[in-house]
Design brief:
Strand content: over 45%
CATH topology of the largest domain: Jelly Rolls
Number of domains: 2
Order of helices and strands: HEEEEEEEE
Shape: elongated
């Protein structure tokens, strides 16, 4: 084989090794998760005047390095109005066993007189997390017995 054949052979080996390396990097990168999501269709009636997490609605985020996450919660509520006071439901993020006081959102009337009132709810948050596993869920507090939520979802995405 001449010098030209050897050079072409070496270039072919280098290109092949480079292709294998890029394929391996792509395969490893596909194993990384950058979006987490959970959905719970079931109806939940939170007890009145108690902080409770929504059953069966949570995500566990696994991070190999510190990262900032955008978190979004949404649900649909039905409120049983109180003609003389508040009747709302308040929602908080529950991250690694700690209830965040900010941000929060509430749904419901003050001195409502309808039989039921329906409200869509959304709660969002941006937070930097350390490397490791993090459990994210939602805490709900209901002013009045008879309130309910349904079709709830929670999602987190790397920013």
């Amino acid at each position: 084989m001449g010098k030209g054949g050897i050079i072409i052979g070496i270039l072919g080996l280098l290109l092949g090794a480079g292709g294998l390396t890029m394929g391996l990097i792509t395969f490893i990168d596909q194993q990384k998760m950058d979006f987490w999501y959970d959905y719970e269709e079931a109806t939940y009636h939170p007890p009145d005047l108690e902080y409770k997490t929504i059953p069966n609605l949570y995500i566990i985020v696994e991070l190999s390095a510190p990262a900032t996450l955008y978190i979004l919660f949404s649900t649909s509520t039905r409120i049983l109005p109180n003609p003389a006071s508040f009747a709302d439901i308040i929602f908080y993020f529950w991250i690694d066993g700690i209830r965040l006081l900010d941000p929060t959102t509430r749904a419901g009337p003050f001195e409502g007189d309808a039989t039921y009132q329906y409200y869509p709810v959304a709660l969002q948050h941006l937070q930097t997390f350390s490397a490791g596993n993090h459990n994210i869920s939602i805490v709900v507090w209901s002013e009045t017995a008879g309130n309910m939520i349904r079709s709830s979802s929670i999602a987190a995405n790397l920013v």
